[in-house]
Structure formats: C-alpha cells, structure tokens
Write a structure and sequence with these properties.
Layout: E1 6-11, H1 15-23, E2 29-35, E3 39-41, H2 46-50, E4 60-62, H3 63-66, E5 73-77, E6 80-84, E7 89-92, E8 97-99, E9 102-105, E10 109-111, H4 129-148, H5 152-158, E11 160-164, H6 168-184, E12 198-202, H7 214-226, E13 229-232, E14 237-240, E15 244-247, E16 250-253, E17 256-259, E18 263-265, H8 268-272, E19 282-283, E20 289-290, E21 293-298, E22 303-304, H9 317-335, E23 350-355, E24 358-362, E25 367-369, H10 370-384, H11 388-404
Parallel strand pairs: 1-2, 1-9, 2-5, 9-21, 11-12, 11-17, 12-13, 19-22
Antiparallel strand pairs: 3-4, 6-7, 7-8, 10-18, 14-15, 15-16, 20-21, 23-24, 24-25
Helix pairs in contact: 1-9, 4-5
Bound molecules: flavin-adenine dinucleotide.
Flavin-adenine dinucleotide is lined by residues 11-17, 34-37, 43-44, 46-47, 79-80, 106-108, 126-127, 168-169, 266, 300-302, 315-318, 320.
Enzyme class: oxidoreductase
Protein name: NADH:ubiquinone reductase (non-electrogenic)
EC number: 1.6.5.9
Length: 420
C-alpha cells in the first residue's frame, strides 16, 4: 500500500520560505513553493542595484533553478490571493487552487507611506528588482538632465537627492549617492560639477541607524557628513510632490526623492482573518502557527512575535531564516510524532555600510566601525550570497569600485531620454 506524502505548500521564496524548503530536505513531504516572482532576491544589496554598483543578476537567482535537484519540490510562478483555511487550500489569483496539509506563509512586507499612499508616485521605495532599476534610472537621469539644464535653480533641483528615512537602507543609499557624485561621475560630465550635488537624508527620529548603539549612530552621522551627506534629524516629512519634499515647515526642491521609511506586512493576516499589529503583521503563536490553525505557519517580515528575550523579533533576513528553520524542524518532528518547541530568536548583530570603506557593526558587546567593519560587512554579504559565480562576480565589482571608483551598472533602462 502506498501512502500519500504530506503536502507542504510554502508561499514566498524569500529568505524565510527558501530556508524552510532547504531545511525540509530529506523529509517525507511533497513541497509546492509558490512565488509571484520567478527569482529569490537578496534584498540587503538591492540598494547597490539602485546606485549602479551591482547588476540585477548579481543579487537574484531563478527559484526554479535553485530547486532543480529537489525532485519533491514543485515551483509555481503564481500570485496568491487568499487562503481557504476550512478547505485547506491556497487560492491563486487566476482562480486555481493548491491544496495543502501544512501551509507556510512567508510573503514578506513592502514599504508603507504612513497613510500617504499618494507619495509613492513621487518618492519610490526599494523592495523589488524593478524598484532597484527604477531608482537607478531616477538617479542617473537626474545627472543627465542637470547636464542639459541651463536654469541654475532648476539645475540645482535636478542635483538634489532627498532620502526619507535614516535606517540602514536610507543611510546606505545616501552614502553611495554622495560617493557617486564625488568620485565616480565628475570626469564624465562637461557642464556640471557633480560634486555640487546635494544629498539630504531626512529622519523623523533623533538619530540615524536607530537600531544601533548610540555611539555607532553618532559615528555613522559624522561619516555621512564627511562624505557630503546633509543629515536632517527630528523632522518628519509632511508633504511630497513632483518638485520636492516639505519638512519642518520648509520646502526642499529635489527632483529625486527616495522613500526608505516604514514597511507594511503582506496581507497574510487578512487572508486568514488572524490578529495583526498596526503594520499588518500576523500575531503568531510561540511556535509560529496561526492562532486556531496549528497546520498554518507564518514567518519572516509578515509576522509579529516577541521571541527575542521578550522583545519583538526584528524584520531582518537572519530572523526570517531562523523562523524558516524552526518551522521545518517542527514539521519534521510532527511527522515523526515527536514533541515540538517554541521559536526563540538569536540576534547575531546588526551591520550597515555607510560608504566605500566605511561601515558599522553592532554585535552587542563588540562594536566595530570604519574600514575594519567595512571588510567584515563585505565578507559577510559575499558569504551569504548563493553560489560561487555570484560571490566572485560581486567581489570583483566591489574591488573595482574600491580601487577605481567605477560602477559597472550605470545603465539607464526602462525607457529612452524622452521618458521622464
Ligand atoms: C532595501 C532593503 C534592504 C534590506 N537590508 C537588509 C540588511 O542589510 N540585512 C538584513 O538582515 N535584512 C535586510 N532587509 C530585510 C530583509 O530583506 C527581510 O527581513 C527579509 O527579506 C524577510 O524575509 P521574508 O522571507 O519574510 O520576506 P521576503 O524575503 O521579502 O520574501 C517574500 C517573498 O514572498 C513573495 N510574495 C509576496 N506576496 C506574494 C503573493 N501574494 N503570492 C506569491 N508570492 C508572494 C515575494 O515575491 C517574495 O519573494 C532589507 C530589506 C530591504 C527591502
């Protein structure tokens, strides 16, 4: 007599979903891995696509290819629109359904505009590869338009970059744009001095990199200012339009605006009618299951759980991976009829790059800054990329930037010079 394998459906091939899939290797399960993108994206380096430092293919991998040796894994390129928990099936937006015995929702989050969704058109955020190439286009086009602009005020606005939010992404974007303007671009233009570009980093809170220790925040701010970034603290942005941003009652004319503040979870909580926090994150049980549904797990950026010594687990890649690992172990233990435990998050540290040779690392008791932190930051990121080819390619791109200040991916795509 043959028994039907346990059917696990995993929605989302990001950090959490992929880790769950990997950790279920060898288990007596049949896995369906669903993602609306055909690739896994290494979001921590997405800002390097936006700033022309890396090409898109250096930080993304086709999911189907990653799963080529896993005969028990079926990859579906599809968008999930809901879950029928009664009938135990995932609803796809084309009307089809995928049945499951165990469901893992790992659908992540997107940037949020604090109730001002209309700002998105003027200040795009960074989440997908398309966001990365769109921002790259905005940044490179700004310099091109400034080169042809004869009116000084309009040229100044073209050369002003406003970045809203001074978390790691805002800091990394601001630092890299400033370095591009000062070191990469000057020789390439004839009518403008790109070193005169203004990069303004606007933060509502009292310091940059709020998740880091105070002294590392202060170091990051001083380093940013040294490489030419204007840091504005304690000023929430109150308006954004096609000409610029308003904060502290004053207007900054900036033709390029980048949103790096606030996230909102995927609608997983809505699909299940489950309790959620203000950012829409599902409030899961201690073992990462949905209240009342032990057969449904939710992990990563789409959940809220106080499993870091009683504190909320941060929305970062290692947390999603640890949760993915926990869910895989729980599924395997259940199939063996063994007891399962609660999820506990272990924080390894926080890292942020500020500039070409500058980074900060907060390991708790050990804090690093400057060039040494930058090398560790670089090695850590290369280590976490998938596959030798990607590691070598990224390492080479970085060495080129380090040694020559040249950024290979300075391509304006998605339209000709006629498209704004
Ligand atoms: C710009 C940026 C920089 C970051 N930098 C860092 C950093 O330096 N260090 C760090 O640790 N973390 C960083 N993070 C956070 C980190 O990327 C996230 O915490 C991590 O990706 C969360 O993993 P996840 O699996 O929950 O979601 P994700 O990795 O976002 O994956 C979610 C997946 O679900 C898919 N999906 C969503 N909805 C659907 C649907 N309806 N149907 C089908 N598929 C769907 C998506 O396509 C995606 O592939 C950064 C994030 C961003 C955006």
């Amino acid at each position: 007599m043959t028994t039907t394998p346990h059917r696990v459906v995993i929605v989302g091939a990001g950090f959490g979903g992929l880790e769950t899939t990997y950790r279920l290797t060898g288990a007596p399960v049949e896995i369906t891995l669903i993602d609306r993108r055909n690739h896994h994206l290494f979001q921590p380096l997405l800002y390097q696509v936006a700033t022309a430092s890396l090409a898109t293919s250096e930080i993304a991998w086709p999911v189907r290819h990653l799963m080529r040796d896993r005969r028990e894994v079926t990859t579906l390129f599809a968008t999930v629109s809901g879950v029928d928990a009664e009938r135990r099936c995932v609803l796809i937006d084309d009307g089809s359904e995928v049945p499951y015995d165990t469901l893992v929702l790992a659908t992540g989050a997107r940037h949020a505009y604090f109730g001002h969704d209309e700002w998105e058109q003027w200040a795009p955020g960074l989440k997908t590869l398309e966001d990365g190439t769109t921002l790259r286009r905005h940044i490179l086009v700004a310099f091109e338009r400034a080169e042809r602009e004869t009116d000084p005020a309009r040229r100044a606005a073209r050369l002003t970059f406003a970045i809203i939010g001074a978390g790691p992404t805002g800091v990394e974007m601001a630092g890299t744009i400033a370095e591009m303007a000062h070191h990469t671009l000057p020789d390439d233009f004839r009518n403008i001095d790109t070193r005169k570009a203004r990069v303004v980093l606007i933060e509502a809170g009292p310091r940059v990199l709020a998740g880091f220790a105070d002294d590392l925040s202060a170091y990051a701010q001083a380093s940013l200012e040294k490489i030419g970034v204007e840091v504005v603290l304690g000023q929430p942005v109150t308006d954004i339009d096609r000409e610029g941003v308003v904060y502290g009652g004053q207007r900054l004319n900036a033709k390029t605006r980048i949103w790096a503040a606030g996230v909102r979870a995927s609608p997983a909580a809505e699909w299940l009618g489950a309790p959620a926090d203000r950012a829409g994150r599902v409030q899961v049980e201690a073992d990462l299951t949905i209240p009342g549904h032990p057969e449904i797990f939710a992990i990563g950026d789409t959940v809220s759980i106080n499993a870091w010594e009683g504190k909320p687990v941060p929305g970062i890649a290692p947390a999603a991976k640890q949760q993915g690992r926990h869910v895989a172990e729980t599924i395997k233990a259940r199939l063996r009829g063994q007891a399962t435990g609660q999820f506990r998050y272990k924080h390894a540290g926080s890292l942020a790059q500020i500039g070409k040779r500058l980074a900060v690392i907060d390991f708790g008791r050990i804090k690093l800054r400057g060039a040494i932190a930058w090398w560790i930051w670089g090695i850590a990121h290369i280590y976490f990329l998938i596959g030798l080819r990607h590691r070598l390619s990224v390492a080479l791109s970085w060495l080129w930037i380090y040694a020559r200040d040249q950024r290979a991916a300075r391509l304006i795509t998605q339209g000709s010079s006629k498209v704004v």
